[in-house]
Amino acid sequence: EAAAQAGNEERQKFLALVGDLNFSWSNDESLFIYVLMLLAGTDEVKAAIIHATLNTTRARLDLVQRLSKVALPDGIVRRELDDIVSAFLNSTRLRNDLTHATFVPAADGGISHTQSMKLQEGGRKLRFGATRSLDEERLAEIRDAVQELKTLNRRIWAFLPLLEQAVTHRAAPALSA
Asked: What secondary structure letter does DSSP report for 174?
């Protein structure tokens, strides 16, 4: 009991960090509603319906990337959107790893490591994914990811007017007879 209480403070710090990661990630993912709205030429409500109907982040980002190929000519705006999607996908890997992991308690009541719940198949064997120590390096990785997501959030907000301008000023494609 005493050991568990002693490790509680470190455990709470880690769980708050994971919470910050999920909070920042969710805020960034929701901004893709506005990206969809602009690329699809629709309103906010319809874009939110599309976003909610696609039940995975990967499906939402696939739609964003496909719509950008139709709505945006090759250029700076399209490359920036591709970079934004790529940055978000990088953070998604860590977020998914931590959100879908088992946290293994240490003898002192803290968390010693995480056990990925992603199944890995090799030959004729099936096993759970990687086990990773919860050391200072791992905590720094999570803190860095939270900061990157916060920066990405500001980047997306700054990008939306540029995207709106690019979509609005793009010449309508000619209909073929």
From this structure: P
Angle ∠(31,101,111) on CA atoms, nearest 5: 115
Contact 127, 119 (CB under 8 A): yes
> Tokens 């929701």 — which residue?
30
Cα gap 163→114, rounded to integer Å: 39
User: Residue 155 corresponds to which amino acid?
Assistant: R
If one counts every other C-beta atom within 10 angstroms of the C-beta of residue 114, the result is 22
Contacts of 69 (CB under 8 A, 6+ apart): none
How far is the C-alpha of 91 from the C-alpha of 86, rounded, in Å? 9
Does an H or E element contain 148, and which?
helix 136-168
pLDDT tens series, the chain, 177 aa:
555 666 677 888 889 999 999 999 999 999 999 999 999 999 999 999 999 999 999 999 999 999 999 999 778 999 999 999 999 999 999 999 898 888 888 877 778 888 887 777 778 887 777 888 888 999 999 999 999 999 999 999 999 999 999 998 865 554 444
pTM (predicted TM-score): 0.85
**Identity of the residue numbered 100:** H
